Structure formats: structure tokens, C-alpha cells
């Protein structure tokens, strides 16, 4: 400790400080960081050794880690939070001045919460308030993985956490992974709070007191509201005076429900807790929010209660449908007419619709002026969802879910859902959230079992596209079964979002019912695509034929396209690939990266050579394309000579093409003395390469480099999943010599076990 104090207060010689750093605890190493920088020393080796000694694992993508200090402290925070690391296990962690969560939290930019959300409970505990404040500044990515159902107290902690980190923090990405049987209410809680929605009727409590940040904001809004109150009061008095004594009037309803149905109870519907229910209904109507499923078809929302009878009918229905959600709060409201910290408030408010059979309502203000609502709603719904099988009304009372009734906070810009089944109810709620989620920039829906509900999601996205301030730039949709042809889905999304930069559509299998389109969802195959900003397009066909005629309108509209990836497509004729290449040449002059995966190119040698000599392409991928299945020596020689003459090609990826030893050795001639190639990266993964073949390739490459005086641009070689384990000694020699030439990325792959697995599934 004395040595550290001296090093921080005085200029220790660099060699003394270098010897001192490995002897410091984490707490003092962190304090010595500035002194090390002043002395021109890097602490990275010390943090890396600390990682190896404490974590005892190899982090994924370790070659890409630029700051081991941040990597260690971020992982350390997560491990301590989830109780998988004992700080007493290493003397460098066991410092009485060191608070593990507090001192590591400023370095945490990414956090994963798992299982029963124990981490949320710990972070919202009163003794960790400063930790939460640090996370609100540093945290950017919040992940949920393998979640289980949780009790109300844990969900309440999650509400506090999300409110602080998203609504009043810096989190801009929420990702959820692997939730085979999701708790619907918990899922919608995370989705709705990620979208920035929260009830405005009751203050959010934090350690038994209102959220300070909300209170400050609420005071500002209250001052503004005070000025507007007289005008609003006149509207209420004028519109409701005639109906106060009738059976369906708001006052009669309040009397029937008892004294507990006051302003606090109406927080489920009201925009501010100080406003009575009738004020909110008037406000909602004036904001053009549809409140009645049966009365909105073909007509716009009424002005502020021009028809009192219709409004009273709507209010009765609204009150009845929300009775179950509101009723259980009455005892709490009778005890405290101002505040109720019921952790179930959000579910009552946001997910009433999910417990019903019907969708939420679409805010018609998101529809451009003059556009008919018939284009956006089914015959029985005002929701963004069309009337398809997944979203069709099934009778019973209609659920009410008005986004206008919630207070809107800050929302995230990236939403990712991986392997989380989405039911029809959840899709309708997500569609509602998407319809006004203007801050959303990246949307990833992966293996969610959407089925026919894809149309519901598309409806929400179409509604979102009507907002002039929409920021959506990246959409990725993948699933096992496709419910519509891939190209139709691509055209549907691009026609609504020409501003997209990245679009990825991927399906494993074709749905047998794909041709039976649900009623109310017109085909997108004829949708006109305006000129788009698309730069990256990825399509994985579920063994569908690749018809260039369907892809051509997309290519013509995407003049800025730089990356194109086509996966698992079947070429219906020998001319189809030639037509595609011609279309790319004419329509996409800026294309830099082209990738084919699992596309049989064994009989398309001419087209392959044309691609390899393209003067614009910088990266070409032929992945598992059976390229060398019936390859002759002449074709291999032509490939090598074509690449040697192409000075623009920087990366060539050939994984899974049955290259073998002798063809790998031949590829070394790409770097011969007479070559004009600028190739930097070569990927020969999964190509049945053995250690002796790799060693021969290395020797030949060394010879070419020597002939060129050591001047070569080749920097990266990828060797994943080859048969290098068959002779470990030879493989190690080849890899050692290769690493003196370029960066080599490989793995310890058990080829015998892989072959056994392959045989077992044949």
C-alpha cells in the first residue's frame, strides 16, 4: 500500500513501476492506471494475466479484445452479481477497500440477467443505489437469457431496474435469448418498458419514495397542466353535463363502483393522476385514438365528444373490460388515494389486451391524412394487425390497449428476440408497440415461431413507417418455417421502409400452407419498391428456386447495394446464375461483397470464373457450394490464374468445397512472384485438409514470399474444422511456420467424432 501511494504521488522510475504492477490488488491496480500511463507503461499484460488466473477460461473472440482491463472488470461484475465468483478465492480481489460491484460498475457496458432475475433484485437493493447510478451512465446493452417465471416482488425489482436503466439511463439495446416457454406478462413488461411505455397515473416508487427523476419531470408537467386545466374543464362541462344523471354516465359508473374508484384507480386509463376519467376519454378521442372495435370501420375517430351517446357506450365498455384489472387495486387505493406501489400495475395496464382475445388499438394519428383505415384494419378491428388467422377476433369482450394512455419515456434503439416463441397475443402487443416506436433503429426477430403472425408484425411495421421521424435501418427476420415466399417478404418490407440499410430474411423450411394466404392480407409480390438506401441484403431461401425475375425489382431499387448474400437457393436452370450476374452488373455498380452459401455451383464453372474476375468485388464467398466436386485440373488452374490477375479482390472464402490437400497446395500459387493479386484473406475451413497437406502448402507459400522479397499482402488464413488432429506434430509445425507469415485462426476439432456424428444422422 505504501509503495502504491508513493507511485501515485511521485514519479517512480518506469522499471520499478513495471515490476510493481503485477503485485497489486485489483483495487490498487485500478488506482495505478493513471500513473502507468504517465510512465508510458501498459497494464494490459497484467489484466490479461489476472483474467487467466481468476476467470480460468478463454474468452470468445479473444483476438478481438482491445482492452483487457474493461473485459476483466465487466466479466468480474457479472460473475460477482450472479454469485459464481468468490472474491476471497484470490488475494488480489480480497481488499477491504474494494467493493466489487461498486468499483467495477463504471466499466460495465453490457449486462446479462438470467433465470429468476436475482441480479435485478440485488441491483435495486438500497445498499446498491450507487451501483445502479453508475450503471445508468455506463450500461449500453441489457440482455435476458433463460428467464423463468418470477414472483411479484422480483418483477417489481425488474420494473425499478428497467425504469432507471432505460427510461432514465443509457441502455440502447435490449436482447432476449432462449426462453422456450415465456411468461407472457413478464415478456410484455420488458417489451413495453423497452419501448418507453409506462403508466403515468401512479408515481414509480424507488425505495418507498417516488422516483426523483420522474418527480422532477412531473413537477414541470404539472405546472404546464395547471395552465391548461380551465380550458379542459370547460370541454368536460360542456360535453358531459347532459349525461350526468343517466345510467351510463361516468358519475353513475363511479357511484356503482364505490368510493375507491377515484383518480388513482383510473390511472390505468388516465394520462395524469390528477385528471378524472372523463377528461382522459375526451383527450383520447381528440387525439384520434380508436376506442370501439365495432364502430371504427370506414370512419375516422370523432372529435371531442360530438356524439355523447357513442362516447358513453365506449366508456361503459372500457370500464367493464378493465374491471378485473382495476378491481384488485381498490383496497390499496382506499388506504392511499395518491400512491400505490402495486408491482402488478404495469401488467394490468399494458397487458390487459394480452389476457383478452383481441388486439390493441391502432393510433390513427400514425396514418397519413386522407388514407383509409380499411387499408390497415380488418373488418372487426382497429389494430395494426390484419384479420388473418393469427390476429382474427374470436368473440368475447374486446381488450382495450391505448398507447396514448401511457406516459412515454426514453426507449431503446435496438430490440433482439432470439428463440422466444411469440403467441398471437404477444405479437399483437408487439405490433402495437412497433407502430409508434420511432426511436427503433435495429429489429431482430429470430426463431420466434411467428407463422401467420408475421402479417401482424408487418402491420405494426407499416404503421411505424408512416412516422416521418422513423429511424429503422436494420431488420433481420429468421425462423424455421416461412409463411410467405422470401422474395415477397423482402418486397413487402422494402416497399414500406426504403430507408433501410440492412435487410436479412432467413427461413429453414417452406411451410406447406404457404400458398393459403389468410384473408385480409393482400400479396406483396406486386408492391412497388421506391428507390431504397439498402446497402446489405441477405436472403436464406427454404430450398426455393432462385428466380432472377423476382429479385430484379429489388436490385433495381437498391442502387447503393454493397453486400448481397444468397443462401440455400436452388438454381432452376443453368442460365439463371448468368442472368443474376448480368443484373448485378447493370443494377448494382457499388456491390463489394457477394456470398453464396449452400448453392450448388458444380455445374456453373463459367459463371464462377466471371465472378472471380469482376473488377469491383472485393470479397467473394462460395460456402458449401460443391465447387470442386467435379473439378478438373484445368478449372482449378483457371481459378488460380483469374485470382492472380484480379487486383481488386481482397478476400476469398471457400469453406466446405472439398478442396483437399492437393488443391490447397495449388492455391499457394496465387501468391507467386508474377501475381498481381491483392488477396489478404483466405478461408479454407471444412475442406478435408490434413496436416501433411497444410505443411506442404506452408513450404510452397514460404518459397513464393522469399522470391518476392518478403513483400506480400496475405494476412489471414482460416482453417476451422479440418483434419489437423490426425497428426498433431506435423500440424503444429505447419501452424508454427504459418503464423510467422500471417494470422492463423483454427480450432481443436475432433474429426473422428465429427465423422461419427455425420454417420449417425445419415
In short:
Helices cover 40% and strands 12% of the residues. It is of the alpha/beta class.
Name the descriptors.
Leu_rpt_41; Leucine-rich repeat, LRR (right-handed beta-alpha superhelix); globular; 19 strands; alpha/beta; 40% helix; 15-stranded parallel β-sheet; leucine-rich repeat; single chain; disordered N terminus; ubl conjugation pathway; two-stranded antiparallel ribbon; 762 residues
User: What is the gyration radius calculated from CA atoms?
Assistant: 31 Å
Major sheet strand order: 1-2-3-8-9-10-11-12-13-14-15-16-17-18-19
CATH class of the domain at 592-761: Alpha Beta
Low-confidence stretches: 1-10, 200-209, 231-384, 386-401
Number of strands: 19
Q: What global shape is seen?
A: globular
Largest sheet: 15 strands, parallel
Percentage of residues assigned to helices: 40-55%
Do you know the CATH architecture of the domain at 592-761? Answer: Alpha-Beta Horseshoe
Distance, first to last CA: 65 Å
Integer average pLDDT: 75
CATH superfamily of the domain at 592-761: Ribonuclease Inhibitor
Instruction: Report the sheet-strand fraction.
Output: 5-15%
Helical segment count: 30
Query: Structural class from helices and strands?
Result: alpha/beta
Organism: Chauna torquata (Southern screamer)
InterPro entries: Leu_rpt_41, LRR_dom_sf
Region (Disordered): 220-264
Biased composition (Basic and acidic residues): 229-245
Written overview of the protein:
Keywords: Leucine-rich repeat, Phosphoprotein, Repeat, Ubl conjugation pathway. This protein has about 750 residues and is of the alpha/beta class. Among the domains are: about 20-95, no CATH class; about 110-200 and about 410-480, Leucine-rich repeat, LRR (right-handed beta-alpha superhelix), CATH 3.80.10; about 590-760, Leucine-rich repeat, LRR (right-handed beta-alpha superhelix). The strands form three sheets. It has a 15-stranded parallel beta sheet. Strands 4-7 form a two-stranded antiparallel sheet. The longest helix has 29 residues, at about 210-240. Residues about 1-10, about 200-210, about 230-385 and about 385-400 have low confidence and may be disordered.
Amino acid at each position: 500500500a505504501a509503495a502504491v501511494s508513493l507511485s501515485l504521488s511521485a514519479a517512480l522510475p518506469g522499471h520499478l513501476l513495471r515490476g510493481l504492477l503485477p503485485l497489486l490488488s485489483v483495487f490498487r491496480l485500478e488506482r495505478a492506471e493513471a500513473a502507468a500511463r504517465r510512465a508510458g507503461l501498459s497494464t494490459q499484460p497484467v489484466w490479461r494475466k489476472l483474467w487467466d488466473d481468476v476467470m480460468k477460461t478463454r474468452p470468445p473472440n479473444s483476438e478481438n479484445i482491445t482492452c483487457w482491463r474493461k473485459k476483466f472488470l465487466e466479466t468480474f461484475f457479472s460473475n460477482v452479481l450472479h454469485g459464481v465468483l468468490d472474491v476471497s478465492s484470490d488475494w488480489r480481489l480480497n481488499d477491504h477497500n474494494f467493493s466489487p460491484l461498486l468499483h467495477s460498475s463504471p466499466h460495465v457496458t453490457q449486462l446479462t440477467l438470467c433465470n429468476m432475475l436475482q441480479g435485478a433484485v440485488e441491483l435495486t437493493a438500497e445498499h446498491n443505489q450507487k451501483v445502479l447510478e453508475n450503471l445508468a451512465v455506463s450500461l449500453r446493452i441489457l440482455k435476458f437469457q433463460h428467464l423463468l417465471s418470477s414472483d411479484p416482488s422480483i418483477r417489481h425489482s425488474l420494473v425499478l431496474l428497467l425504469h432507471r436503466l432505460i427510461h432514465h439511463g443509457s441502455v440502447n439495446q435490449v436482447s432476449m435469448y432462449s426462453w422456450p416457454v415465456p411468461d407472457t406478462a413478464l415478456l410484455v413488461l420488458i417489451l413495453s418498458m423497452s419501448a418507453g411505455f409506462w403508466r403515468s397515473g401512479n408515481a414509480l416508487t424507488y425505495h418507498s419514495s417516488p422516483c426523483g427523476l420522474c418527480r422532477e419531470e412531473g413537477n414541470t408537467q404539472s405546472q404546464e397542466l395547471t395552465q391548461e386545466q380551465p380550458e379542459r374543464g370547460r370541454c368536460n362541462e360542456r360535453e358531459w353535463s347532459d349525461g350526468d344523471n343517466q345510467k351510463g354516465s361516468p358519475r353513475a359508473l363511479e357511484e356503482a363502483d364505490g368510493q375507491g374508484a377515484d383518480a388513482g384507480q383510473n390511472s390505468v386509463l388516465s394520462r395524469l393522476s390528477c385528471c378524472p376519467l372523463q377528461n382522459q376519454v375526451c383527450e383520447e378521442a381528440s387525439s384520434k385514438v380508436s376506442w370501439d372495435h365495432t364502430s371504427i370501420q370506414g370512419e375516422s375517430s370523432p372529435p371531442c365528444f360530438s356524439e355523447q351517446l357513442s362516447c358513453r357506450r365506449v366508456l361503459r365498455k372500457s370500464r367493464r373490460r378493465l374491471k378485473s384489472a382495476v378491481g384488485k387495486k381498490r383496497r390499496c387505493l382506499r388506504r392511499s388515494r395518491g400512491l400505490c406501489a402495486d408491482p402488478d400495475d404495469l401488467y394490468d395496464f399494458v397487458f390487459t389486451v394480452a389476457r383478452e382475445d383481441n388486439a390493441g388499438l391502432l393510433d390513427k394519428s400514425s396514418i397519413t391524412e386522407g388514407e383509409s383505415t380499411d387499408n390497415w384494419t380488418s373488418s372487426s378491428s382497429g389494430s395494426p394487425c390484419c384479420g388473418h388467422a393469427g390476429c382474427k377476433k374470436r368473440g368475447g369482450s374486446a381488450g382495450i390497449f391505448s398507447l396514448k394512455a401511457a406516459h412515454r419515456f426514453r426507449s431503446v434503439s435496438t430490440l433482439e428476440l432470439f428463440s422466444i416463441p411469440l403467441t398471437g397475443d404477444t405479437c399483437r402487443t408487439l405490433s402495437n408497440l412497433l407502430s409508434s416506436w420511432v426511436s427503433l433503429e435495429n429489429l431482430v426477430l429470430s426463431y420466434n415461431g411467428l407463422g401467420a403472425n408475421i402479417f401482424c408484425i408487418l402491420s405494426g411495421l407499416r404503421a411505424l413507417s408512416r412516422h416521418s421521424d422513423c429511424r429503422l435501418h436494420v431488420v433481420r427476420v429468421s425462423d424455421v418455417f416461412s409463411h410467405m415466399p422470401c422474395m415477397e417478404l423482402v418486397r413487402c418490407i422494402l416497399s414500406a421502409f426504403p430507408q433501410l440499410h440492412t435487410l436479412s430474411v432467413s427461413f429453414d423450411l417452406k411451410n406447406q400452407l404457404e400458398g393459403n394466404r389468410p384473408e385480409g392480407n393482400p400479396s406483396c409480390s406486386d408492391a412497388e419498391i421506391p428507390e431504397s438506401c439498402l446497402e446489405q441484403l441477405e436472403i436464406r431461401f427454404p430450398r426455393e428456386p432462385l428466380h432472377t425475375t423476382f429479385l430484379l425489382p429489388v436490385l433495381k431499387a437498391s442502387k447503393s447495394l454493397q453486400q448481397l448474400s444468397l443462401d440455400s437457393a436452388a438454381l432452376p436452370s443453368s442460365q439463371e446464375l448468368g442472368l443474376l450476374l448480368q443484373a448485378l452488373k447493370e443494377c448494382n455498380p457499388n456491390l463489394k461483397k457477394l456470398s453464396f452459401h449452400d448453392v450448388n455451383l458444380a455445374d456453373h464453372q463459367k459463371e464462377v470464373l466471371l465472378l472471380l474476375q469482376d473488377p469491383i468485388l472485393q470479397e467473394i464467398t462460395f460456402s458449401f457450394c460443391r465447387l470442386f466436386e467435379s473439378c478438373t485440373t484445368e478449372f482449378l488452374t483457371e481459378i488460380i490464374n483469374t485470382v492472380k490477375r484480379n487486383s481488386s479482390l481482397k478476400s476469398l472464402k471457400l469453406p466446405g468445397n472439398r478442396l483437399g490437400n492437393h488443391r490447397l497446395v495449388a492455391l499457394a500459387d496465387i501468391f507467386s512472384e508474377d501475381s498481381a493479386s491483392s488477396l489478404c484473406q483466405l478461408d479454407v475451413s471444412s475442406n478435408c485438409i490434413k496436416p501433411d497437406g497444410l505443411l506442404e502448402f506452408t513450404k510452397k507459400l514460404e518459397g513464393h514470399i522469399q522470391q518476392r522479397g518478403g513483400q506480400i499482402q496475405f494476412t489471414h488464413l482460416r482453417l476451422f474444422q479440418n483434419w489437423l488432429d490426425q497428426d498433431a506434430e506435423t500440424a503444429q509445425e505447419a501452424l508454427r511456420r504459418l503464423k510467422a507469415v500471417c494470422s492463423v485462426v483454427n480450432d481443436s476439432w475432433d474429426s473422428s467424432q465429427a465423422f461419427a456424428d455425420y454417420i449417425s444422422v445419415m
